[in-house]
Amino acid sequence: MERRSESRSNVNEFYSVEFSIKDIDFAYQFKIWDVSSRGMCVMIRPDSDILKHLRVGDILNMKYYKNDTTKAVEFLRTQIRHITKDDTGRFKDHYMVGLSIVNDQSLSDTRPA
How many angstroms separate the CA atoms of 43 and 86, rounded? Predict the structure, then answer.
């Protein structure tokens, strides 16, 4: 019997995510480092300009690349769940940005946010 209050999505099939922000002329791509039943996490350097443009609660159209490179990329609505500074370990001083796919349906409009 499933005890989680939220259903587990198939986020572990993705390797990296790419997105762009209106005020920035290019797209950012990040490897997905932490996958859990509630979402996934990417690591961002503290000096990256993208941090100035991300806010908890933002929903962006993100392009997901799959572990299986023979499969097509997916464009999914994704919410920024948290932005947390990592104070220890391999990514010390980097920011963990928690991502959660809003729904499991691919977007019909494949343009980035």
Answer: 9
CATH number at residue 33: 2.40.10.220
CA distances for 29 relative to 4, 5, 34, 64, angstroms = 30, 31, 15, 9
pLDDT digits (tens, 9 = 90+) for 54-101: 999 999 999 999 999 899 999 999 999 999 999 988 889 999 999 999
Cα-trace Rg, the chain: 14
Please count the structural domains in the chain.
Answer: 1
pTM given for the model: 0.77
Domain that includes residue 63, residue range: 11-101
